[in-house]
Amino acid sequence: MWNKVSKIIDFLSKEIDINPKYKDTRDDAKNRLKLVLMHDRSKLAPGVMDKMKEELIEVIQKYVEIDKETLDLRLETDTETMALIANIPVLSTKKNAMAS
Amino acid sequence: MSGRAIVVTSGKGGVGKTTTTANIGTALARNGAKVVVVDTDIGLRNLDILMGLENRIVYNIIDVVEERCKLHQALVKDKKMPNLVLLPAAQTRDKSALKTEDMDEIITKLKEDFDFVIIDSPAGIEQGFQNAIHKADEAVIVTTPEMSAVRDADRIIGLLEAKEDEIKYRLLINRLRPGMVKTNDMMGVDDVLDILSIKLLGVIPEDKDIIISTNKGDPIVNDENSLAGKAYRNVARRLMGEDVPLLNLEEPITWFDKFKKILAPVVNA
To answer: Which residues of B touch A18 (CB under 8 A)?
Structure first.
């Protein structure tokens, strides 16, 4: 008997949106999923990362001499954003690249 | 003849890969195409059951690979249609029994004889999955509007993108409950497409008749009155290049919805 009554109350409260348990979860799902996928996707294929690293080195070397061995390049994600973090030790500036 | 090899895959288990394979295969055959459905889920075969052919299996795909029979001997004819056959998986072996090269050879041979080779992939992203997608020209990615299934579908898209030979892929959203979408309790088609940015092949509504059709071993596309059956028949037509609009799955607005609308400002105040 009480079981039935509580079922009816459950149904009614859902239908007229008064029970907080039944708040819209569609957007929750979508937003949580977007965030999860951003993290999942942030793992670039290793090949892509290496290629980017090589090309970056090439560009930077036009202007400064860098230590290729200790260069560190990685993608970092926190809860809302993703960033490309690069730590590039500069050995010396190139004379011909200095501002005139 | 060179047919099209289409792999049905999902990443996550239990979203309806095998049901989709059985129904797409049957629907294509109903339209007159010559179709073979291939079960690559070695050790966990189920496509035979959904097709109602479990009692007719003599040989399986591993028997072909290990040369205990010829390829055509392992093909099981459908009960209703002579232009539809099943290549069953082995039940008593494991995934390591099937190598990529063997799979490639079988699919290549089948493409010579059939218009469509529909490959049912195992769940997961391991070797069995890799075998299933390796020789496929196209992929149907099956998902449900649930977070876990969509996440896994995203992973599958990533893996298909990384594949050496280009593969065309489209999304099938399965087990959608329009009533729950309407009340904002479930992600809808637009939500899923927005997240995955992928071409849509079709939407199948949740339908209890699917369970009944499985019990009978008769794919739902053979049931003229079922909405899910119609949705699957439309998917097959789209695969054949026809431009078929999406079914209207919207449930009619009931008196209760109207009542709710009137009451909402009062309740939320």
So the answer is: 267
